[in-house]
Automatic annotation (TrEMBL):
InterPro entries in alphabetical order: Restrct_endonuc-II-like
Protein name: Uncharacterized protein
UniProt-listed Gene3D superfamilies: Hypothetical protein VC1899 like domain (Restriction endonuclease-like) (3.40.50.10770)
Top-level taxon: Bacteria
SUPFAM superfamilies with a match to the protein in the record: Restriction endonuclease-like
Length: 730
């Protein structure tokens, strides 16, 4: 049954007296869980500071206030350190005084915030009623539009009718740019009209006579320009991609129809609406709470713009619509472009961004051949292997498929110390945890997909301690009771000390680790500890409130990078000496300047490690010469990408290309990554880039631009050089 509250349609369900929600950098689940619980009072648990989520919490409160005027919203600040166990536990103490029956959702925030909120909820109900209420505790699974409760039950939640793309923009601090509506009149005419547009587009791409279909003359002429050049060709490709998404549900079962399809959407930051910098996205499709963002490029021989296009769609889409946005790139190219030549072909770039060694889910690339096949499926001409369903269901996540995990043979009879950890988006956190503890055995939990198995192999190579073993245990990361039993069985199979690290995996895995340790401790085990590895601050946070430094990790990070070279399709890293770089024949002033800056930094960091990335593909290897020439610097607990290029000026291509560079560095290093861009351009261009980075790169330290003027100061001034080192290691 559905009901309407203040013009917002929500699912009928059991309402809670109060709801506490952790707020992260994806605030959408907060709105949806409030609609599901329908509480009288909401507590938004957030952090402050440069990495804080206070702004997200305030924007969520503003939207909730408009939807539910009678709802009371409290902002609960847990401090600037999202991993400070003692401070967060103290800040959550007021929740323990709420009447029994209050609920909590621990989807957002750090694992420390989630575990401590779950602990507060459990302890409060045990103290008041003598019984835990796992049915009132859970998290929102964005991949399946479901709330998973800690008692093992799940509940599908409908997206409110008042929820739109504009809602998502506002939650992330953006507004629609003034101008015409982004809704295409052609697509508003429905899926049947969209399929007729697909018929025209397929005929143009295959060189056939356009069919006689009831399409307006204006739309017919626009699609006729699909293989041309200029603005008309780009607009035609946008319309075709939008029509493809609109018409797809006519031929595919279980694939939902998009709630919104917008073309040429522009968003401006709410903090500076008059800046004139609009983030334009070619095609946006919203399916419930999911957003698919597609960049359309229609050029002959477009290899030179692939990197900039990928950087643009990846960073802009996720900045405006959140990290859960599924980006894609549709590109029209000629046969020479598809064959590769001196640059990677699109499928090779996709390998680079989606390969097992990367931590970031990169954009999917749709080539001209792919587009022809997709259009053929929509209009009923099935050619070869179907591609439409895998694209929409798997790549864009429009159909949730439960993972089938075979029963794992759990290791038993191990002598401690043992570390139980989970593979996360960045394997470096797992390496850091094992590096600090030096356990005898490491038990690594992870999904059974090939990507995680490869990462477990990398982990084994990076640990490399004599006598230590790494055991990989495949798990499903959604059912908390089963996860708690699995971790409990692993603990029971160890003789001696066990540390459970809750840093990686889903929040359910983190909470399951806490519950398993709590149950075993209550049963008499006194050699168990729970921790969180904060790779950002270089420390390990114990849940008893103590903290210890991780120590330098140069060698371990270096070993992890080198381990990538053992796979057939990956990015490998060749060690280099900045002092020995020969730039005598280099024609680019920016690259010469980069080499001088690197030599200066190398003199100040004698123990640092330097690497040159190489894209390793089946049968051949090549340098990143199709990107701004770059290197990686590993020092302490930081991984820094350094790049130099002439186009890092005030231009769309320069900005997008630099965004792609930062995407790659962030994919490798996550929170510990920095990007230093060196350019021979002047200061005004650098100021423009820095301002745009602050808007688009949602990390505490966006890429830094070093101009010719600033670089010369670094090369001659010890104070300036050490200030740069401080920024790199901060």
């Amino acid at each position: 049954m559905r009901c309407t509250l203040n013009a917002v349609c929500v699912e009928e369900g059991n309402s809670a007296v109060a709801l506490a929600v952790t707020v992260g950098t994806n605030p959408v689940p907060v709105l949806l869980t409030v609609c599901q619980h329908r509480p009288h009072t909401v507590w938004l648990v957030h952090t402050t500071g440069p990495r804080g989520t206070a702004d997200y919490a305030r924007r969520v409160a503003a939207v909730l206030g408009g939807w539910f005027p009678a709802l009371t919203v409290h902002l609960l600040d847990v401090g600037a350190d999202a991993a400070d166990v003692t401070a967060i536990r103290a800040a959550l103490r007021p929740l323990a005084g709420l009447p029994a029956g209050w609920a909590c959702d621990y989807t957002g925030g750090t694992a420390v915030m989630s575990v401590l909120l779950a602990q507060t909820h459990r302890d409060a109900h045990l103290a008041v009623t003598g019984a835990d209420r796992p049915d009132l505790r859970g998290y929102w699974d964005e991949s399946g539009d479901r709330v998973h409760h800690d008692d093992g039950t799940t509940r599908r939640c409908a997206v409110p009718e008042g929820f739109t793309l504009d809602t998502i923009r506002r939650l992330h601090g953006y507004l629609s740019a003034p101008g015409p509506t982004p809704c295409s009149p052609a697509l508003e005419r429905g899926p049947c009209y969209a399929r007729d547009l697909c018929r025209l587009a397929h005929a143009v791409l295959t060189g056939q006579q356009p069919p006689e279909v009831p399409v307006d003359q204006r739309d017919r002429e626009l699609i006729g320009a699909l293989l041309g050049s200029g603005d008309a060709a780009g607009a035609a490709l946008e319309l075709v991609v939008g029509a493809l998404l609109t018409a797809a549900p006519l031929v595919l079962s279980r694939i939902p129809a998009p709630d919104e399809v917008h073309l040429n959407t522009k968003a401006i930051t709410a903090a500076a609406p008059s800046s004139g910098d609009a983030n334009e996205l070619d095609v946006l499709a919203r399916y419930g709470q999911r957003v698919v963002a597609i960049s359309c490029k229609n050029r002959r021989n477009p290899q030179g713009i692939l990197a900039s296009a990928l950087g643009e769609i990846n960073q802009k889409a996720r900045a405006v619509y959140g990290g859960a946005t599924r980006p894609a790139l549709t590109i029209i190219m000629d046969k020479a472009g598809e064959s590769g030549g001196p640059h990677p072909a699109p499928d090779e770039l996709s390998t680079l961004l989606l390969g097992p060694g990367m931590t970031l889910r990169g954009p999917h690339i749709i080539t001209e051949a792919d587009l022809r096949d997709l259009l053929a499926e929509v209009i009923g001409l099935r050619v070869g292997q179907p591609r439409l369903r895998p694209l929409l269901a798997q790549r864009f996540g429009l159909v949730s498929v439960a993972a089938v995990v075979p029963p794992a043979e759990l290791p038993t009879g191990l002598d401690g110390p043992v570390l139980i950890t989970t593979l996360s988006g960045n394997v470096l956190a797992t390496v850091a945890s094992a590096h600090r503890q030096r356990p005898r055995h490491v038990i690594v939990l992870g999904t059974p997909e090939f990507r995680d198995r490869v990462r477990a192999t990398d982990l084994d190579a990076a640990l490399g301690a004599p006598g230590a073993t790494t055991r990989f245990v495949p798990i499903a990361m959604t059912a908390l009771p089963a996860l708690t039993r699995t971790i409990g069985a692993l603990i029971a199979g160890v003789r001696g000390p066990v540390v459970v690290d809750v840093t990686g995996g889903t929040k359910t895995v983190s909470v399951a680790g806490y519950l398993a340790v709590a149950a075993a401790s209550e049963a008499g085990r006194g050699d168990l500890r729970l921790c969180y590895t904060d790779i950002w601050s270089g420390s390990r946070r114990w849940f008893d409130g103590t903290t210890e430094p991780l120590g330098p990790m140069d060698d371990r990070i270096g070993q992890l990078l080198v381990a990538h070279a053992s796979r057939p399709e990956a990015v490998s890293f060749r060690a280099v000496d900045p002092a020995a770089l020969d730039v005598s024949g280099e024609k680019s002033p920016s690259r010469v300047l980069l080499a001088r800056v690197m030599a200066r930094l190398a003199a100040l960091l004698p123990t640092a490690r330097w690497y040159r990335p190489t894209l390793t593909l089946p049968g051949r290897a090549q340098d990143w010469n199709w990107l701004p020439p770059g290197y990686l610097l590993v020092t302490g607990n930081r991984l820094i990408g350094l790049y130099g290029h002439e186009r890092l000026g005030k231009s769309a291509d320069g900005l997008s290309e630099a965004l792609f560079v930062d995407t790659l560095v962030a994919a490798l290093g996550g929170d510990i990554a920095r990007t230093l861009l060196v350019t021979d351009r002047d200061s005004p261009d650098a100021a423009y880039l820095s301002a745009r980075y602050s808007q688009l790169v949602r990390r505490p330290f966006p890429p830094r631009v070093l101009t010719r003027e600033h670089a010369e100061i670094v090369l001659t001034s010890a104070d300036a050089a050490h200030e740069l080192l401080d920024w790199l290691s901060r």
